[in-house]
Design a protein that fits this description.
Strand content: under 5%
Distance between the termini: 20 Å
Strand order of the largest sheet: 2-1-3-4
Pfam families: ABC2_membrane_3
Number of domains: 2
Order of helices and strands: HHEHEHEHEHHHHHHHHHHHH
Structural class: mainly alpha
Helix content: 55-70%
Radius of gyration: 32 Å
Number of strands: 4
Low-confidence stretches: 177-189
InterPro entries: ABC-2_transporter_component, ABC2_TM, ABC2_TM_bact-type
Family: Belongs to the ABC-2 integral membrane protein family.
Shape: elongated
Number of helices: 17
Protein name: ABC transporter permease
Membrane topology: Multi-pass membrane protein
Length: about 400
Amino acid sequence: MRNLWTLTRADLRQRLRDRSVLIFALVVPLALISVLNLVFGGVEDLELEPVTVAASTPADDMLGEVLLTTYGQMDGMDVTVEQVGAREARGMVDDGEAHLAVVVPGGISADLEAGRDATVEMVEGDDAGVEVDVLQSVTRSVLDQYRAGVVAAAAGGELGLTQAELGSISEQVAAATSTMTVVEGEAPDQQLDTGAALVAGQAGLFLLFTVGFGVLGMLTERKQGTLARLWSTPVRPGLVVLSKALVSLLLGVVATGVLLGVGALLFGADFGSPLVVAVLVLCVVIAATSLMFIIVRLARTEEQANIVQSILAIGLGTAGGSFFPISASGALGTVLDLNPVAAFTRGLGISHGGGGLGDVGGPILVMLGFAVVCLLLSRVVPDRGGVL
């Protein structure tokens, strides 16, 4: 153990002196997370702006009354309704005085009750935003509900109901206005919000670069002759390899922990229990480190190792949702679920939702299973690097 600690400490000190370790492990990902925070940080803080509706509705028409009542009951959205004529309503939109014009033709209720087609005109302004889309959706919903009342009354007539009963049914269905409430929501359990998912994905992506400074460093030491001198000492070769793996583990755990911490501050993310997060970080670092043993056996030079590492890191990182969420079903979905970066993000989502260690057993099993498979493959692939 003393020899192992000595080798690990000496190698770790050497890696920390290399500025590229700090650049790829912390500086670049922190800069990228900061940029992503500026771009996506306010996406989920959507605030609906006040909106003005120019409404032209016929007097004493039930449908018009229902529409006006619905607009006034939209909680979380400030809607001002200006009752004007049809021509004036369109003119207010053209002049920028209203965001949306709603023109209800006269006799529309009678037309619908008689089974005749009727059209409600909606004209949106040039500066229409999501608020207008919401109002248009509400208007369509009210029209569909009113038409449902007409259909219900027609069905009642087929059943032989009296005129009074039909009128009552029609009024009850049509007057049951739907009130739209706009409230601030939270991501469901076991799912990270946009900012937290970006932080987790970026941490997983750059982890695949960070751990390479330990294990893949053997190729550099072979080129410099340091590895040959180590093989000539009484120290067992297995301890040398293990010390490289420990360096990768230490660098990966520290870098990932820092990225999650800083990312949580920038995005206001909550990843849940620190204990669960620590276990997930350790598991994903083990999975990432195990992949380096395959690379170090396949690559003849450090340049080849860096190329293969970059391809695998970007591929696994992107598939794991480092830049945007990816979902699939069937066989492709199963393959994506076996990605350690995706499992890491999924585990953090479970922890965010209040899950404990028992709840993250699935993602942990995926990451550790990935590590076992990579370590087994590293024993059977050709050792082109000549360092293991």
